[in-house]
Amino acid sequence: MKEIPFIKMDGLGNDFFIIEPENSDIKLSAKEIQKLGERKTGIGFDQLFILKPSKHADVQMVIYNSDGSKAGACGNGARCVADWFFNRNDVKECTIEAPGGKILKACAGRMITVNMGPALLNWDEIPLSHKVDTLFLPQVLPGFDAPCAVSMGNPHCVFFVKDIKKINLAQTGPDVEWHPLFPERTNVEFAQIMSPSIIRMRVWERGAGITSACGSGACAVLVAAFRRGLAKKKAEIVMDGGTLVIEINKAGDVLMSGPVHTAFKGTAYL
Q: Which of 94, 148, 157, 214 is catalytic?
C-alpha cells in the first residue's frame, strides 16, 4: 500500500492536496490522482501540488488537476504554497517556480500576495488554434457575446454578462473548455461588472470543473475587463467562495491578494 503524507489547504474554498518536498519522490499516475481527488471515497481537491527543491527559486510546484491532467498555473494554490513556505521558514517573502519555469514572487501581509507576472495576450501564447483577435474572439458559445482570451500561464476564456445568476456553468463550461479554438482546452470565466472596481465572477476550471474560486481566473478577468475599458487597474473580484483583490501594477505585472486556510494534515493510502 502506498502512503502519501499531505497537507490540505484552500484559498476561498479552491482546495488543494499538497505534497511537501521531502515526499516529492512519490510517483502518482493519473488514475491515482483521480482516486485521491474523489470527494466521497478519497480526499477531494481541485488541484494536487507536488513541491520540490528548485535551483532558481525557494520552492518549485508541479500541479495536477483533479482529473489527473497537468496544470500550467494556479493562483490560489501559489498563495497557499507561499503561506506554507512562510510558516515553515519564518519568513515573509519567497519565490516560487511555477510550471514552465516562470518565477512567482510572494509576500505576506494582511493577506498573501503573489505577483503572477504579466498576462499573455497573443493568440499563439494563450494558445489558440489559429490567429484571431484575442480581445474579441469569434463566437464560441451560441447566445453569448464575443469573449476575451487571456493567458496567466494557463488559458482563460472570459465572457462578460449582464446577469451572472442566469449562467448554467455545468452546461456552458465544458462546451467552451473543449472548443476547437483552444487546443489545450481552457478555463472559462463568466464576469458581471458591478462597478469599475468590483466584478462578480464564476468559473469552470479546465480539468476540475466548477470551483468556488480561481486565482488565475480572477487575474484574467481583471486583465480582460481593463483591456475593454470596463474596469480600473485594481478591483475586487467576487467569487462564490470569497473575494480576491487583483491589481495591474506599473510594470504590467498582475498582483493577486487574498486569504488562505490550512484545513488539516494527514496520510492518504492507495
A: 214
User: Which string of b and e fits 44-60 if b means at least 16 CB within 10 Å?
Assistant: ebbbbbbbeebeebbbb
Same domain, 200 and 77: no
Is the same domain home to 70 and 174?
no
Does the annotation count 74 as an active-site position? yes
Active-site residue (options: 74, 94, 148, 157)? 74
Q: Would residue 219 show up in a list of annotated catalytic residues for this protein?
A: no
Measuring CA to CA, which residue among 11, 7, 68, 9 is closest to residue 212?
A: 11
Query: Which domain range does residue 92 map to?
Result: 3-110+259-269
Asked if residue 151 and residue 220 are part of one domain, the reply reads: yes
Are 141 and 67 in a shared domain?
no
pTM above 0.85, yes or no: yes
Q: What is the pLDDT of residues 53-97, one digit of tens each?
A: 999 999 999 999 999 999 999 999 999 999 999 999 999 999 999
> Do 171 and 229 belong together in one domain?
yes
Where residue 143 sits, what CATH number does that domain have? 3.10.310.10
